[in-house]
Amino acid sequence: MSSPDFSRLFTALFRDDGRGEIDPVTRCPLYDCWGLVMAAHRLYGVELPDLGVGCTRSAAVHEVWARETRSPRWRTLDAPEAPCVVVLRGMAPGAAWARSHFGTYVGGGDFIHITRRRGVQSTSLAEFAGKVEEIKAWAGGRP
């Protein structure tokens, strides 16, 4: 499978609970980390479910993700394959660690993700090795 053209995603701006809406001023798409994961997977022809919670609510994201991935629609990978979801540890309010930041593995050892401060980035998975909690692939089914 050839790699999709992610260039449009790299113009995106961060917005909590953003799912690709277009900013009326900049004309750029708006995403939070899960919204960007959904958009990147869509470029591979994979429709993922919306977690339905903005990524700044770390504890809630952690809980929703835990429920979602108990479904047989997801499979755990020992090694990343494009596309798959890279689940990273983030800080939840109260300084608890939570599975609350997501990116999409795109091959070549890299994943793309978005943060409020830096926007969309392509990052080496090796740089985040200590924060990767799990790697999940969509096994199918209706989102």
Keywords:
alpha+beta; 143 residues
Q: Distance between the terminal alpha carbons, to the nearest Å?
A: 22 Å
Number of helices: 2
Task: Just give the CATH class.
Answer: Alpha Beta
Overall pLDDT score:
89
> What proportion strand?
35-45%
CATH architecture, by name, is Alpha-Beta Complex
Radius of gyration: 14 Å
What is CATH's topology name?
A: endopeptidase fold (from Nostoc punctiforme)
Percentage of residues assigned to helices: 10-25%
Unreliable spans: none
Order of helices and strands: EEEHHEEEEEE
Principal-axis shape:
globular
Overall domain count: 1
Order of strands in the sheet with most strands? 4-9-5-6-7-8
For the report, how would you describe the main beta sheet? 6 strands, antiparallel
Total strand count, please?
Answer: 9
Structural class by sheet pairing and helices = alpha+beta
Descriptive report:
The protein is an alpha+beta fold and 143 residues long. The chain has a single domain, classed as endopeptidase fold (from Nostoc punctiforme), CATH 3.90.1720. It is built from two helices and nine strands. The strands form two sheets. Strands 4-9-5-6-7-8 form a six-stranded antiparallel beta sheet. Strands 1-3-2 form a three-stranded mixed beta sheet. The chain is globular and about 40 Å long.
In short:
The chain has 143 residues and is of the alpha+beta class. Helices cover 15% and strands 36% of the residues.
Question: Layout of helices and strands, plus pairs?
Answer:
Layout (H helix, E strand, L loop, with lengths): L12 E2 L4 E4 L6 E3 L1 H11 L14 H11 L5 E3 L7 E9 L3 E12 L2 E6 L3 E6 L7 E7 L5
Parallel strand pairs: 1-3
Antiparallel strand pairs: 2-3, 4-9, 5-6, 5-9, 6-7, 7-8
